[in-house]
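[job 0412] stage=complex_fold ligand=flavin-adenine dinucleotide status=START
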Amino acid sequence: MEDFVVVGSGCTGAMAAATLIEGGGGARVLMLDAGERDDRYAGILPSGDFVSVRTTDREQYRYFLGEDFEGVPWGKVGTGAQLTPPRRHLVRKVPELLPLESDSFFPLESLAYGGLGAGWGLGCCAYSDAELRAAGLPPEAMRAAYQWVADRIGISGERDDAAQYTIAHLERVLPPIEMDANAAHLHASYLRRRRRVHAAGFRMGRTALALLTRAVGERGAYAYRDMDFYDDRGQSAYRPWMTVDELRKRENFLYRNNVLVTRFEEMPDAVRVHGIDTAAGEAVSHVCRRLVLAPGVLGSARIVVRSFDRKPELPILCNPYCYLACIQPALLGAPARGRRVGFSQLSLFHDPTGSNFDVAMASIYSYRSLMLFRIVREAPIALSDAYPIMRYLAPALTLVGIHHPDARGGRRSLRLEPCAASPTADVLRADFSLSEDAERKLRDRERRFTRVMRSLGAYRIRRVDPGHGSSIHYAGTLPFDSGDSGDKPFTLRPGGRLSGSARVYVADGSGFRYLPAKGVTLSLMANARLTALSALRDA
Ligand SMILES: Cc1cc2nc3c(=O)[nH]c(=O)nc-3n(C[C@H](O)[C@H](O)[C@H](O)COP(=O)(O)OP(=O)(O)OC[C@H]3O[C@@H](n4cnc5c(N)ncnc54)[C@H](O)[C@@H]3O)c2cc1C
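[job 0412] stage=complex_fold status=DONE, emitting structure tokens
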């Protein structure tokens, strides 16, 4: 019997497992994971940067367009438009094994080794104390956990106007990456108009990233190739599988992939975890003293609901999201010299009350690599004409992805219903809408973002709304309940233990009662550490 079973190898599973292994006095940990990998493109991506690959590699169509043309977006822009062919394994088998039906909510889930973190954009933000309290998270313990995570994954950033929303709590960060010409132009414009931008309730600064700007151990410093959404060469970008690869060198850690965990059964002194071996199609089970679930908040909802007779409606939190495509006319036709960066380099925060609560956040991108095929295809002209026009436009294009805080009101619910056609005999139905008041507030904020970008010399040419779920920031399916009136079913106790259970913990974002607009993943990882520490204390 294992001391702990951890379900999932994503950002939260990796941090929970590392905490259990390093603080557990030799405790035996088994990680059960679906564990899909890229077995198609990993070996064929060249080492050059985007421009050299475009001009020299005759095989480039294989990874840019995809061997099955999966990199060509045929339909409307929706959730996961960022996933390039080498990242499509993130969502492999999800429609069959994690069926979800909805006409209003389109989330991205992953069954990959490393989960969604195998392709995340690395943006790191620490929540303010007010946000932590609203989410049901303990501020002091979270601050210590933020630093533990930052030391482990490596975060680069700047102590500038945006730091209060990103890295202010962290004592140790690496220097930021160098900005490319597009970001530097916008940033210079901000510094010139800083006072007016502040008066409008906005602050701009460098995006804090889980990206090394200096070599650490076997991971190299960032190499400015603008291939960030295609490969992990040099491992400067943090991916959770790096932590799991490290743990797999330990004798007391065991990793098993091709397992879809379906439910658990709690016994007086142990937990039996049930699942399906997805390669053999057979039922499997493992017994452990304590179970730590980290399959993502929709995954935890499925596993917990299946483990009880009652099938309740559960809540879900998600940040509303849209993109603004902008042009900086001063950069039109600028020579394509210079390095480009795929990750967000600047962030713009809207905090009109200055309270660091109810803040909206925009991540600003200028990558060439990802925009290439999508924007050329969307231009209302023949492809042969679109290419020369794109060469002129590309240096000036700036993408602004706006995340809004989750708003109360409207309808946000999940329900697990029987479905004979699914391998787990069920399907998750989701319903998501905002109240009219929340919709109005969102539009008003987006107009303010548009105005402030215009004042900085970046003109909006298009707004794209990929639909609810496209922020890829989810939480709150089993919310923390701090009430003293006993164990409320389908909630978590502070520390992450499932209410009514003695041995089951949920280490992903299921417990969060509020979802700030700031990138959720640093907080997910810090909370996963706190959950694992509380499981160790109870053991
Ligand atoms: C393109 C992209 C860009 C992003 N950019 C950012 C960003 O800049 N900043 C930010 O904060 N966030 C970002 N995110 C979101 C971030 O990736 C997620 O918040 C985070 O990875 C969630 O981690 P998790 O561990 O909770 O879940 P997941 O990543 O979903 O991991 C779930 C794990 O559990 C396993 N699993 C699931 N179900 C089962 C099951 N039943 N049985 C066994 N195993 C199972 C999966 O294989 C996987 O290993 C981005 C996401 C994407 C896709």
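The radius of gyration is 23 Å.
[job 0412] exit 0
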